[in-house]
Amino acid sequence: MYHFKGGTVYLEDGFKSNVDVITKGGRIHSVGVNLTTPKDAKIVKLQRDQFLAPGLIDAHCHLGLFEDGVGVIGNQGNEYGDFNSAYVRAMDAVFPKDMAFEDARRGGVIAVGAFPGSANLFGGVCSVIKCYGETLEEMLIDGYHGMKMALGENPFRVGQSLSKPPYTRMANAGLIRKTLIEVQNYIEKRDNAKKTDTKPGGKKKAEKKQFDRELGKEHIAMMLEGKYPSRWHVHRRDDIETAIRISEEFKFKLVLEHCTEGWLIPEFIAKRGLTAVIGPMDTARVKYELKNRDERAPYVLNKAGVNVCLMTDHPVMPIHNLRLCGSMSVRGGCTDDEAMKMMTSNPAKLLNIDKDYGSIKKGKLACMAIYSGHPLDMRSKVEHVWIEGEQYC
User: Fold this and answer.
1) Is the C-alpha dihedral spanning 170, 173, 179, 181 positive or negative?
2) What is the DSSP letter of 58?
3) Could you write out the DSSP letters of every residue in 267-304?
4) Order of strands, edge to edge, in the sheet holding 20-24?
5) pLDDT in tens, 310-340
6) DSSP β-bridge partners for residue 14
7) Three-class SS of residue 230?
8) Could you tell me which of 130, 133, 114, 7 has the C-alpha nearest to residue 65?
9) How far apart are CA 275 and CA 70, in angstroms?
């Protein structure tokens, strides 16, 4: 049990000075001003220049799938060979002892969306994991969070290298539509196989019909039936429009990943109530479709009414530099509070973990970090981290 006193605390409604936080067991027991210290609580006195913030959340990365420090053999995030690898699951490749998890914890990042890569039009099933635990079983929050999909250069460049479709943006969209229609037919056949036939005389008798299951189609069916969203890799504005067009045609939930040129068409995105996961912010423009990347993107989209989250896309950008994305968003026009929400409460809601993570609030898990200064000042250090009520470092 801990009683945090003094300093500045980041709450759901912004940074507040001289707020007390009391933890009990693994959860936050109370938040308020001038709280009485419980009998068995250990006091943690924050200095005037220290900040207490909830554990950060990376809405999109490949943590545990592209293992740090081991080279090509650790690259387990893309299943090359076919445009459709919907049958794979990220959770089957996450390595719990990837050294980057230690970087995440010490950087104040406590949970992430761990996704397959973007080499395929259908990349596989996404996971949501904690950045702590000895086994995947301990770390896994949700092994069926969404279907990773991709448009743009990545899938058609991979196709060209393998001499297999897709070769163009036309084929990107065409093969996706073709596959979705096949899955719609699969769903209809599956449902018909479950129906009870009416026999002569009015009596109903169950008749077993032949139906062959197919794992990849089952995973895509979950998306079409609204059981989880499509997490769609899109950079250019034309790919963003294509993703929206297809999602509206087939009526599935869409989240825009990267959304690099989304700031050029903010109202178009906002009127559809979509979420844009922006990033990584601090990398070179290594391909053509990144040429219009701009650190004003989070500000412009947020101002238009788009729900914005931030990502590192680790290992593209190191996981412990998530707050650098927040800092750059502030430089691009966001307020401190807006940038913090993009790394805490917004991704918590997107990943469906806001019951336990994303803010310092009574009842939530006590996953917090103490910074030597403002969390969005990159000169500030993460000095101490608490994970589920226990001091980690």
Assistant:
1) negative
2) E
3) HHHHTTT-EEEE---SS---SGGGTT--TTHHHHHHHH
4) 27-32, 20-24, 2-5, 42-45
5) 999 999 999 999 999 999 999 999 999 999 9
6) 11
7) strand
8) 114
9) 34
Does residue 142 or residue 48 have the better pLDDT? 142
- Placement of tokens 């470092």 in the chain: 393
Q: What is the DSSP letter of 207?
A: -
pTM of the model: 0.95
- Under 8 Å between Cβ of 110 and 322: no
Instruction: Please identify which residue in the block is written with the tokens 């490749």.
Output: 93
Residue 61 and residue 128: Cα distance in Å, rounded?
Answer: 10
Task: Report the C-alpha gap between 165 and 158 in whole angstroms.
Answer: 9
Which domains, from first to last, does the chain contain? 1-54+358-393 (2.30.40.10), 56-193+212-357 (3.20.20.140)
Q: Which pLDDT score is estimated for 91?
A: 98
- The C-alpha atoms of residue 229 and residue 113 are separated, in whole angstroms, by 13
CB burial of 202-239 (b: ≥16 within 10 Å; e: otherwise) equals eeeeeeeeeeeebebbebbbbbbeeebbbbbbbbbbeb
Nearest to 176 by CA among 227, 223, 143: 223
The phi and psi torsions of 292 (rounded to 5 degrees) equal -100, 20
Please answer whether residues 70 and 320 qualify as being in contact, where contact means their C-beta atoms are separated by less than 8 angstroms: no
* Position 193, amino acid: A
- Per-residue pLDDT tens digits for 62-82: 999 999 999 999 999 999 999
